[in-house]
Every structure is written in C-alpha cells, then in structure tokens.
Amino acid sequence: MRRLILLRHAKADRPNAVSDHERPLAKSGRSQSTVMGEYMAKEGLVPDLAIVSTSRRTQETWQLVQPAFASHIDQRNDPRIYEASVDDICQAIKETEASVHVLLLIGHNPGFEHLAQTLIETGRPSVLSRFQLGYPTAGLAVIDLPIESWSEAGARIGHLERFETPDSVNS
Are 64 and 37 in contact (CB under 8 A)? Predict the structure, then answer.
C-alpha cells in the first residue's frame, strides 16, 4: 500500500510584470499554507518525500507547510509538475523510490484535479462529493493506492481517503 498526498499550492498573488512561474503567495496563501501544514501534522499525514513544482508559489507553500512536521522531510524540486499534464505528473510519481511509502506532491491545477480524477476509483460519498465541488487553492487530496511499487500507479485504482481545504479543517 502506498499513500499519495496532493497539495495544491496556496493562494497566490498576481503582481504586475511578474511571470506566472514567479508569482508569490498572497497573504491569505501564507495563512492557508500554515493551516494545512498544521492539519497534516496533527492528522499524521507525514510524507517520506515531498516533490515540489519549481514555481515560486509552490516552493513558498512547502516552506510554510514543512515546519509543522517534527522531522525533516526530503524535498525534490521537479519542473515537470509546473503546468503539467496527468502523464507528466504520473511519470514523476512512477519514478519515486521504493523506500517512499507516503509521497507528497505540491503543484497546480488543473493537473492535480485531473490526476486525482484519473487515479480515484472509490471513496466515502461525503469525501467524493466534496472533491467534486472543485480543487481550491491549498486543497489536499489523500489517495491510498493498493500497490507495492510507485511504478504500478495507474488509473482507477485509488481510494480517496480524504479531501480537505483550509475552510474544511477550520470548521
């Protein structure tokens, strides 16, 4: 069994004359990141490895999430996750070492939403219905995969264990 955690970057600012790749987090995004990191740590959603898009907003999200964990989490930056297709993200997942049982990806929509839709076969109705409402900034999908190796990750095999947002964990 492997666990995949997909965390969409927190709310980003849109400053003038700044490329999309270099957009920083907004003030609310910094708060969202901290809230989601604290939630993950409290719930035992501790990754063995974090693969993070190279965009500024995803890097800043991880910098604010990571301190919530008691131990250091290895980080790998992967440019394939920025504006990525499902196939590109899947390739990054499939290349993950066997020693990693809980994998966190921090990236973007629509790639993460499409990836989750591709992987998920089952989930509690309440969790699935919340997921179907959309994948907002700082949205967190936890998908359990009945596989022994990340190379086996594929369509319609996952169980959506939970889907949370900053609003849902604060209510």
Answer: yes
Neighbours of 68 (CB within 10 A): 17
* pLDDT number for residue 170: 86
Distance CA 72, CA 95 (A): 22
Give tens-digit pLDDT for 74-121: 999 999 999 899 999 999 999 999 999 999 999 999 999 999 999 999
Cβ contact 150:100 at 8 Å: yes
The residue ranges of every structural domain in the chain are 2-170
Q: How far apart are CA 51 and CA 104, in angstroms?
A: 6
CATH superfamily of 2-170: Phosphoglycerate mutase-like (3.40.50.1240)
CA distance 43 to 162: 11
Helix or strand run (H / E) with residue 78: none
Q: pLDDT tens-digit profile of 116-126?
A: 999 999 999 99
Residues 6+ apart with CB under 8 A from 81: 51, 52, 53, 54, 58, 88, 89, 92, 105, 106, 107, 108, 111
Measure the CA–CA gap between 57 and 100, rounded to whole angstroms.
25
pTM, 2 dp? 0.97
